What we know:
By secondary structure, this protein is of the alpha/beta class. It is 28% helix and 36% strand. It has helices at 8-14, 21-32, 47-52, 64-77, 115-128, 144-150, 213-222; strands spanning 2-3, 36-39, 57-61, 83-87, 99-104, 129-140, 153-161, 167-177, 182-192, 198-209, 225-231, 245-252. Strand 9 (182-192) and strand 10 (198-209) form a beta hairpin. The longest helix has 14 residues, at 64-77. The radius of gyration is 18 Å and the shape is globular.
Amino acid sequence: xxxxxxxxxxYDLTQRGLNGDVEYYMDQxxxxxxxxxxxxxxxxxxxxxxxxxxxxVTGLDLSQKMLDRAKAKAEELGVADSVRLLQGDxxxxxxxxxxxxxMIPFRSFLHLLHIQEQMKALACIRKxxxxxxxxxxxxxxxxxxxxxxxxxxxxxxxxxxxxxxxEVAMWDYTRYDHFQQLAEVTRIYERSNAAGxxxxxxxxxxxxxxxxxxxxxxxxxxxxxxVTQRYGSFxxxxxxxxxxxxxxxxxxx
Length: 253
């Protein structure tokens, strides 16, 4: 079984982000008025629009296959010379410069599976923040009802049409370990042609460590950050009990 991030083309097709997230992070980058670092940049869904807008942006990701896809897209968009795409680990990077904005969009912080890893990443982030710099991120809000509904069940996450007319269905089988706060996901991509015949079926796996809002606030404070903005959507609505997403901006203490 492969790592889900080995399938960069299917990832691009099926992972379109959250409503308004590109615009939100674009606005944060423009407000920052300096260099931007995106951790877990993947295939460049957010990094490349920033580069197109003339923002000095660096993208860092652990997966070389995702970065290769991002570099190809950068060439297609004509921004290959104005964006840095680096292979690296958000727990241990050292880029030798500071940034006005460091961001971890699309819940990528949840790939850190232990508190020690989370703390190492936050230490690296704080080290790379310019004076007055900001750290922006978003994570989903754990819901007990969703745990019950999804645990050890196969769920269809959506179907997506390719340019050649083929259709890709994305399925997830999720198993929760609530003691460790882990969600272990087996993801299956099923590709069918126009006649409805399945032509490819690939399976990957990834694990997330979900984090509760109060826990994340304490973690940031413990690592030298103060939360300055908190939203429940990328339209900057208030975060409350009904919110499914937690969107934070923090600064160094």
